Amino acid sequence: MVKRPVRNIDPERVVRAIVDAERNTTGQIRVSIAPPPWGSVRNAAERAFARLEMTRTPQRNGVLIFVVPARREFVILGDVAIHERVGQEFWERVASAMSERIRSGDLTDGIVHGVEASGVELAAHFPPDGGSGRDGSLPNTVDM
Prior knowledge:
Elements: H1 11-22, E1 28-33, H2 41-51, E2 62-68, E3 73-78, H3 80-103, H4 107-125, E4 142-143
Parallel strand pairs: 1-2, 1-4
Antiparallel strand pairs: 2-3
Helix pairs in contact: 1-4, 3-4
């Protein structure tokens, strides 16, 4: 099997997807693009979750999409409140759809799909509340 090369990420497109997804929710989504870590990508994602202060959201509804392009690996982590509502099966469905897009060579499309799917669930479970839920808002940037 020949692997297609993964195109470089388009951070502007990812940020637009984050902004659009967060319009309808108090939830927060971050994307982190990382070099290959020593050891487990999952462990590196958990460290990034803490470093990026994903637990700082007032309703504990942050989502991190952590991507290691060189390994074509990623991890999606949801803070406790969103994970309790959507369950592990949701994250696995999103990861499967992201994997298909990334395998086809389009890293940005895979990430955007993960952001959009996360945004739909965040909006369903954490709709806007008149402003108080966005206190301590995390930046809408791609951590690279």
